[in-house]
Amino acid sequence: MKSTPTEIDHAAARSVPRAVGPGRMREVMSRFATGVTVLTVGGDHPHAMTANAFSSVSLDPPAVLACVGHGAVMHQALTDAGRFAVNILGAGQEELARHFADRRRTLGAAQFEGVARRPGRHTGAPLLDGAVAWLECELAASHEFGDHTVFIGSVLAAAQEADEDELLFVGGRFGRPATP
């Protein structure tokens, strides 16, 4: 008898050995270089969050995923909105990445004060000026696992905007790709 994906996920979560704790996992994963994105939702309750747990899922149909902690404000905002944008940041946007990662920042529309942006045509989610690329997505599925939810978005629109290096994050630091 085959298990459904949900049953497999829950069974896997219960069978994960606890020899590796959150601190060690964070330390090891810091060695994996990632791009830096800002997830945004629009509407009556706009919100943004810096995220590097992001990936392409499928080219046909186009889909991406973002992992969001259960305790993050973005978790409920994304669930409620059902549509979101992914802004892929450029190397010159470290300050913006830090702003939307700061848990002490003012929330709601005020967090966007002074941030150049425009609403996405398909989602209403803020598209940040200067981002090297962006995607507008409709929430297609979500899968809880451990302390995060994997949100899968069907891509409604995508574009490359700026012709500059991407912002990277590795070893707890921001950087840019090395040039040959």
UniProtKB/TrEMBL annotation:
InterPro entries: Flavin_Rdtase-like_dom, NADH-dep_flavin_reductase, Split_barrel_FMN-bd
Residue runs in coiled coils: none
Pfam family, one: Flavin_Reduct
Main enzyme class: oxidoreductase
GO molecular function: oxidoreductase activity
SUPFAM superfamilies assigned to the protein according to its UniProt record, in alphabetical order: FMN-binding split barrel
Domain of life: Bacteria
Transmembrane regions: none
Classification via SMART domains: Flavin_Reduct
UniProt domain Flavin reductase like: residue ranges: 29-176
Known EC number: 1.-.-.-
Keywords for this protein: Oxidoreductase
Tagged with keyword Oxidoreductase: yes
Identification of the protein by name: Flavin reductase family protein
Native source organism of the sequence: Streptomyces catenulae
